[in-house]
Specification:
By secondary structure, the protein is an all-alpha fold. It has 14 helices and two strands. The protein has a two-stranded antiparallel sheet.
């Protein structure tokens, strides 16, 4: 046949078929998706610093190890309050004509999902220390360090953001300060928060949940040998990254719990308030996020964490009960007992 012997006709037909398939499989569905989906009303626009930080996130290969998608399966419940939906990504636009980084959903979780990292870990101080060397705050971390985002100065300028790290991790004399690139990357990470659905909007359920008798009481809380929530494991999940395994914190960054007057206080109300509402009243330390509220901790889980902190590292304070903590949480308007 002349058609198969004529390369102009053959390759022309192949090109036409390719363009037609591209239009129907990729282009038209993409246009329909943009037309049918809009950002959630509660979604916040990315700041100029966050836009630069997103470019750094891509340039440093962070997307290779971190996803930004909460799947509708029970094991993803720790990454967000609800499964992700198309509207979560509708506000993203192309970086420029040539680059399409509209979504950074990722394909592999070598590191944790970052969909709501801005809510789980909003502390600028923690994020800067973590970027400089992840092993400072997470001993077992396999994440690479990014020291080139920082510099040492003999005398920091007034506007410099000083990063406090242990002496064992210092590579040079002077004061470690964050470069603008580090602050931009942190600004992007802090912006990653799962937007709330409008009132009355149903959310997809998390599927394939484990049996209650396997996961223990509460919302899948780890259990101790005594049957209640495991305070040590809960501490390692929610508190250890800042306050460290030994409870000594990091000088100039995160306060120690070992020997802390707040932890040892007979009156547990301030400690509960800090866990549930956060704390930002100490110049020498960064602001603590509302860990209990952000993680939807229940009274028995908060009590387990507190009892672990009040009885570890040489601390000897009275044990608190879940009932006592529940009353204090209700007084704060923070009860998560469902």
């Amino acid at each position: 046949m002349d058609f198969f012997d004529n390369h102009n006709k053959l390759f022309g037909a192949a090109l036409l078929l390719f363009l037609t398939l591209t239009a129907f499989v990729a282009v038209i569905p993409a246009i329909n998706n943009e037309r049918n989906n809009a950002p959630l009303p509660t979604a916040e626009e990315l700041s100029p610093e966050g836009v630069k930080g997103k470019a750094l996130f891509v340039a440093n290969g962070c997307v290779a190890c971190h996803t930004q998608q909460v799947r509708n399966i029970d094991m993803d419940k720790i990454w967000g309050e609800r499964p992700g939906i198309a509207a979560d990504y509708a506000s993203n636009t192309r970086t420029d004509f040539w680059r399409n980084t509209a979504t950074l959903m990722g394909t592999e979780r070598t590191g944790p999902d970052l969909t709501s990292i801005g809510s789980r870990q909003p502390s600028k101080e923690w994020n800067l220390v973590h970027l400089y060397n992840p092993r400072i705050v997470v001993k077992e971390s396999i994440m690479p360090a990014y020291p080139w985002l920082f510099e040492n100065k003999a005398e920091p300028d007034k506007e410099d953001v000083v990063v406090n790290i242990p002496d064992a991790f210092r590579k040079a004399q002077g004061t470690l300060v964050a470069k603008p690139e580090a602050l931009q990357l942190v600004a992007y990470l802090q912006s990653l928060k799962q937007a709330q659905l409008p009132d009355g909007t149903p959310s997809s359920a998390f599927l394939y949940s484990k049996q209650q008798e396997i996961t223990g009481p509460g919302n899948g809380a780890p259990t101790s040998d005594q049957g209640g929530p495991d305070g040590k494991l809960l501490y390692s999940t929610h508190c250890q990254a800042c306050h460290q395994t030994n409870g000594e914190g990091l000088k100039g960054a995160f306060p120690p719990l070992k020997g802390s007057p707040v932890v040892l206080d007979t009156d547990a109300s301030l400690m509960v308030s800090i866990i549930m509402k956060g704390y930002d009243a100490r110049e020498e330390y960064g602001a603590m996020p509302a860990v209990g509220t952000n993680s939807n901790l229940k009274p028995e889980e908060v009590a387990a964490i507190m009892n672990h902190e009040r009885s570890s590292w040489g601390n000897k304070a009275r044990k608190v009960s879940a009932e006592e903590i529940e009353k204090l949480m209700k007084t704060l308007g923070q009860s998560n007992n469902q």
